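Format notes (please read before filing issues)

Several people have asked whether sequences and structure tokens are stored in separate files. They are not. Every record keeps both together, in the order shown below: the sequence lines, then the token lines. Line labels are part of the format and must not be stripped during preprocessing.
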Amino acid sequence: MRHKTTIEIPRMLIREASCVMPSLNDLADPSNPARAGIVRHGGVGETVNHVPRAYKHPCSIHLRHHLQTLNRDEQRVRRTFLLIGSRNSFQNLLLPLWINGKLICRPDEPWTVTSYTALCKLASGTLVIQKIRFQESGRGIVVAAEHHEPVEWAVVAQPLLFQGEIPPFGLLAAMTYDQRHLFHLLWERWQIELYPEFSWHKEAHDELMDTFVRLLSHDVKVRGSALCEIAARRALQIEEGYLHSSLGLTKNGTVISVMMSGSLHDHGRIQRELGAESAVLLDNGGSVSAAYWSAKDWDADSLMSPDPPQPAFFGNGSYFRDAALTTLLFELASDIVEDPFYPRPPGDEPWTHW
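Then the structure lines:
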């Protein structure tokens, strides 16, 4: 079943863009076992998730966390918000997060030798997708970037489109820890039980993951070439069925959100066709969705309560669950449409409200 939802937000409509992580203080502690993130290598038989479910909060909690940073009078104003998940931030290798001056990453993250692509909010409030490095200084770990303007927060993500060019497949492989989103691989126990003829996929997956980790500190071209060699030798097919979420920026600052089934190159092409100059992958798998609060949703009780009203969800796939570790929250100057989006239950059937 194919799926595509796109949202375009003109720059003039964005009052503020925030990166929200309610569990930031807990995960900023280097001794926290949750910092191990999601592990798919080192001989593990299946995915091991070290991040407690309690760290992943519903969208309304993310909004409440943001509202608590405002003063009391600001909290009691009817506002329009759009929230987009960035579920993979920190949990996977090569996807650290820099927020409030803190680098949130796994203990095996090679941040001292890696150049990243990140969605950044500059001190002026401008959103950019740029190449960054993390460096130690007297002020702790700081962001060194192409734009000399200070960075307020940075969400590292896989590049899908950069300055008009779609990255070669080797670069995508080198920067994507979960190789299932690049190559068609059935390797988890329940998949092999259902499709025993694909048991060799487990060997291919393990070879890819072991090679990925072994070459973490090598040049990205070396890692990408090694992964593509394995895929070619084992005749792996490109994965085209996953539902992914991406965010792109046009030259004039319009934000383009795409939730679509397809390959990562498909995402890059669609973002370019929609006018994006650069775009990054935010969320792997069917967990993608967007949440929307119309200014009309806030009644008197909502404005007086610490808990926001329930949002309308759209673009969500059949695996959607209202829980995320990190989100991008956009406060908008006005409602996107005259009435709130129709609530939509999880599922891949076409949306029939016109």
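For reference, the curators noted about this record: The chain has one domain: 4-164+241-332. The CA atoms of residues 164 and 277 lie 5 Å apart.
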